[in-house]
Amino acid sequence: MRRQAPSVEPHDGMEDPMALEAPALLHRLARAHGVQPEYVGQDGSAQTVPDEALVKVLAALGVSVRPDGVAALAEAVEEAETAPWRDVLPPTVAARSGHRLSVPCHVAAGEPVVARVRTEDGRTLEVSVSEPVSEVRLVDGVERERVHVQIPADLAPGWHRLEVTSGSGSTASAVLVCAPTRLSTPRPFLERRGWGAAAQGYSVTSADSWGIGDAADMASLAEIVARHGADFLLLHPLHAVEPGPHPADSPYSPVSRRFLSALVVHVPSIPEFADLPAAEQAELRSAGARVQAELERTGRIDRAAVAAVLWPALRRVHEVPRSPEREAAYARFRAEAGPGLDDFALWSVLRLDGEGTGPDLADPAWAPGGVEAERVRVERATDVDLHRWVQWIAAEQLADVQERARAAGMRMGVMVDLAVGATRETADAWMLGDVLVPTMSVGAPPELFNQLGQDWSQHPWHPRRLAETGYAAFRDMLRTVLRGAGGIRMDHVLGLFRLWWIPEGAGATQGAYVEYDHEAMLAVLTLEAERAGVVVVGEDLGTFEPWVQRRLAEAGVLGTSILWFEQEDGEPTPPERYRRLAMAAVNTHDLPPTAGYLEGVQVDLRERLGLYTVDVAQERRRSAEEVRAFLAAAARRGLLAEAEVDVPDAGPEVRERQIVALHRLLAQAPSALHSVALVDAVGERRIQNQPGTRQDQYPNWTVPLGDGAGRMVSVEDLADSASAARLFDAVDAELRASVPVGIGVSLHTSPLAQPGRGDAGGMNVYVRQAAVALARRGVRMILLTRAEEPVGPDGARVRTLDVGGQAPPVTVVDLAAGPSAPVAKADLAGLRDEFTRAALDWLASDAVPGGPVLGGADAPPVAFVHGHYWLSGSTAAALARAAHAPYLQTMHTTAAAKMLEDPELREPAARIEAERGIVGQADLLVVNSAAEVADLRELLDVPRARTRVLPPGADLETFTPDGAAQWPGAPEDDGALRVLFAGRVQRHKGPHLLVAALGVLRERAGGAGADPGVRLHVNGAASGDDGLDLAGLAAQEGVADLVTFSGPVPAPALASQFRAADVVAMPSASETYGLVALEAQACGTPVLAHRVGGLVYAVLDGVSGRHVTAGTPEAWADALAEILADRDAWAALGPGAVRHAAGHSWEAYADGLLEAVAAVPRRSPGLDA
């Protein structure tokens, strides 16, 4: 059907460009092309980019303007803002599985549009297109309108295509990359934190090395640190370097990020090496040994000398015939690598020929596919194959490093480092010239540790061209880097969002930030990393916008936390406040080793090199004060003697104890990964790299691993190093000892009780599932509840919940307090003091699995105490005081709120008084919804700042749309509208309203015996003392034949009932959220809910169900009648219900709770608040 086009709005309400002055026009033009005319510096100050820099960056993007040409600028602005309307679709669209996406689509006004997704597995999915909403623009004399293609949330991750066909019959398409909602790969390290060693692999050699650390040395390193419990070995970038006699020293300045450095190859480990004559083997080994001896003599890594012996050896081994099995393996490698490998090998040959007076690779004839380049490919086939073969050998040997690392017990294995880009005039520049910007360099603006800025001499991606090619170059590079690795560290991960472009010939201060489609870049990264099973760590230091770190965390990308940078108001940040989704380390390769940093060698070096723009004496004082503050923080925790905090000329023993103390301090942080620099393990003082310097200023990247005196430390030395063993073992022990404990208190109802029976309900599920999710985040959870049956002589019964994976189990403790039998809720208030004493005694006793939690020097850190419901508040507050831990409280409901929503209800004065005391004592009130925040503020005067909204989750593994569907009612209910109530049978939950509503519907249908077309099943048991007799009420209303009953059932059976129901009804008088509603929606069943409290948020009206505004039988009858009148419309809400529930995971709840806890100040010993 042809649609009516809305009226034309030429400029989307934006100001006419011709009405603006030149500076404003230039800034508007820059923003239209993703260039930021202003940015916030690392110190928080606003910075403005010079006009000259903006003009040069725009020119590199293909926009040539003068900063003072108003007319030309206005025209360029108009063109930039109109250009997207010419494209039917963006060239690449990024989606996230589990999230709906609305994609803008531009077509001729009024034309019908059909959209479809062609999935990577060959299926075709029709997708909907929304009507335009007053978005029409006159483009080149033609009215074009913007509609939106709706990408469904259930699209599977993968590489798909989006197609749009308009009424004219033309079809446009775009790459559609769908990423996982969040990387799952960090999960094992959230369950149990891990640590590893960070090494500049080239700097650690052995007796069998050829002047540089190689793959064999790296494998040995992995095995050494694995013996001490390490989970990973982080290595420097292993990207390809110059194939000739002069490879660059910096591993962060490769010729290609997609391919590997030949310098990692250990020639004697190549299988064909053994087939050489013995004399020839000895000759090659001898040549390598001479380079190694020279390294030991000079104390500098000479990559040119290494290349001089390595390449002839590789060429000779390449000539050795391979077995059929090896030849087949080589063929498979070539096929998997594709034509990019052939081009890289060809470039290597051309590059070698170009030493001195070779061909101009910028000439189209010498470009990829050019006539001259192809001639060389044929004529020099053997030379080309040599470089192709070297890549295979390097990949094989690095795969062996990973295999040996995992075999040694590492959970991750090798973590590889990904550089920001490749340098100018390199293989990547030659092969990827269409998606790189040759006139720009990437770097960083001035910041605290690099006050002149940085220029890394690397070409940036061209944002538009990268998108037009579907990010293929980025994807292919990632696939190669991820192959065979367990983890990846992305240097300057902020480059996924924006890069600092520096015009050729300009200084690093004269650049500008250029934005990238970070959603597309993240989608490519996370999709490929998830498929490779690789953990992603992003180096997110430097200048960035705060939301960037949040977005990376949402995607499951770990950040980076460096001890020296973690400060708040000039003081060290307490470890508990570090990010969990991060890799924490004391230092980085751009800072001195810790021994050197403690001495301030970085200040001396920067002063000597003239890198400071501030007063050096002041900087030296600042550095010394900073060091003292961190050592004092370690001493306050008993990790270092007070006398060893301020020792200006510390000897080796004291310095080692300081280094160990700082690493132990860091290991108390909740960060998923902890990195220990190999240089710290041996007492090295020298910095590996000083940013902003040349080789003639400082020997960057050529310093071999050494001890505090500068003596070389070999792989063999490291294996026997007592100091390295002490540091590694200390970190491993601290990580295991500092597993945080979380204590949950639920006096009146056990988290293990069957929901729907007695007082057990959604709160039981909440307490249990929250604890399981927190355990899966590495917290050792202890749940305390009152015993309702006899327990052992120690006054407690202990049970454990195994939550799977490597997470600590949840411990559930039934404590004796009062009668060993169920007690009416109204009588439990009198047992609170006895329960508190029992909890304090048990937690301080040896009966606690793993030892006492309260008291004693060896007691583990208590991260928080969380009280549930008012009856648990006084106990939770007492435990928090004893543990010096934050006191969290979830009310679940309050007397004031219940009485407001149900005027007939009266709550005891003791409860009202107790709740006022609880909300005053709690450090943080964890609430389910904004409605609860409002109630607490209006009814109990709780400031918003002391609340944190954390909606509960649903068990999305049990409650799913897929699975058995078993209706518990009568078989003859087929065809009737099936309504399910699941919960406690009490007046407050409202099941009587549903029974009465059936009576209304029967009366409307014709009275006794008439079939209203609705059946109700009640799943639950009587609760409370209101004596609600539903069966009697059903008989009284004349609907006994329409209502069936059953007792509560376990979660899998309940999920089956949800799937079989047409409607799940929640007529409660009040709910802080409503877990049943979430669980039902997760099963694909829309929910009919009373519009009260948290149900307003738990059920989205018109999206995942509908709201009933009044708590009367007539209102519920009207709502059911409306559903009956259009059952298809009601059923159509099912997918929306699934999507809404999918946004409620217990994992997200746990992450939010731990984030909130980190922001709560720790209680000091001896203080009650």
TrEMBL record:
The gene is malQ. Keywords: Carbohydrate metabolism, Glycosyltransferase, Transferase. Residues 973-1129 form the Glycosyl transferase family domain. GO terms for biological process: carbohydrate metabolic process. PANTHER family: 4-ALPHA-GLUCANOTRANSFERASE DPE1, CHLOROPLASTIC/AMYLOPLASTIC, 4-ALPHA-GLUCANOTRANSFERASE DPE1, CHLOROPLASTIC_AMYLOPLASTIC. It holds the Pfam family Glyco_trans_4_4. One of its GO terms (molecular function) is 4-alpha-glucanotransferase activity. Gene3D superfamilies: Glycogen Phosphorylase B, Glycosidases. Belongs to the disproportionating enzyme family. Residues 89-180 form the MalQ N-terminal beta-sandwich domain. Its EC number is 2.4.1.25. Residues 761-953 form the Glycosyltransferase subfamily 4-like N-terminal domain. It catalyses: Transfers a segment of a (1->4)-alpha-D-glucan to a new position in an acceptor, which may be glucose or a (1->4)-alpha-D-glucan. This is 4-alpha-glucanotransferase. InterPro entries: GH, Glyco_hydro_77, Glyco_trans_1, Glyco_trans_4-like_N, MalQ_N. It comes from Micrococcus luteus.
